[in-house]
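QA checklist item 7 of 12: single-chain prediction sanity check.
[x] sequence parsed
[x] length recorded as 399
[x] structure emitted
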Amino acid sequence: MSISRIGTANMYESTINNLNSRNTSLVDLMEKTTSGKRVVRASDDPVAAAQAERALTRISRSENDQRVLGLQRDVMAQGESKLGTAHDALKDFRDLILQSGNGSYDQKARDALVQQLESIRNQVLSYANAKDSNGLPIFRGLGSKEDPLTNGNPGTNSQLQPGQATGSENGLPLALDGFATWMNVPTGNGVFAVTRQSPTGSSAYADLGTVSDPSAITGASYTLNFTKDATTGALSYTVTSGGTTGTAVPYTAGDTITVGGMSMKISGNLATGDSFTLGPSQRTDLFSVLDNVIAGVKNGATDAGAMQQALGRGLNELDAGMSRVQAMRSFAGDQLNRADRLEDDMKNQADQQEAARSRAEDIDMIKALSDVDMQKVGMQAALQSYASIQKLSLFNFIN
């Protein structure tokens, strides 16, 4: 039989080590409970700490993306607002065109309309040169100078680069395509344009014309020169194209003229010298359309035919220009809707990453509080046991 001897000092040391261990565990658990985190230091759980750090990085990136998206949304909102205001101004311009064609108006009345037309034209130009909160043109497209559009004669001089920058996967464009908005208006009826070269004072003017035979349109230009017989008053015209002039064709007022698959009608009193050219539709800027209308109204008293020609053509070209403004406004509106969807996606991703971080490092508070209470009870029991053991000595027994 062997007898193990345990000294009093050894027993005391063992008990104190146990108390220190329990105290360390209790302090550590209370620290985690206070912070609400199971992983306070990376050493607590290296894998969970890495997962939490990765989730925090993704949350930070999502927050940055949301801030950038907010800036891009502001640009689109400003652009949509400016386009809406410009479209309303152009509608007012259109109403004034219709008023200018009122036969009861004299030139003084038209001059008053000219002032309104010029004011609206300048307003629209200021909208086209509008800048965002960073001082950059909203309609700069792929790039431009500080003021993309400057006054020309007529129209504007453009510094715009055609094209529309696409947004990133998690963002919107930082600018709108100003070239497509303001500089891409088809002349005439969109297929061909009728240009009047009659002498000043002539009352003759042509309508927009229509396509009578699409297969016959070759893209060539045709010039119609009219002649009126001084004795009989009979009208005739010749057609010149590619340097070749055809034979004279009799003409009766009100007849439809068809040439090269294109048809048009002429109003007013035709006379010798009246001339009209039918050529392929080109692209012009919206402000040239406005300026041509204004010039026609200004000279209405001395050149009624030119005014009527300018009003008829300007009305159609203005409608085409307004449709492009409205199309760009719709694009900006679509981008704002896309921004809402992107923001919702970013918030959902941030919530998912926050949940992942919480699972990795947050503590179960109910269980943690229960564990704290249990460890406090255990600590109290250990202290009481130690106090009782201290009394077990020979001196206490003798006493």
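[x] summary fact logged: The longest helix spans residues 304-361.
[ ] second reviewer sign-off
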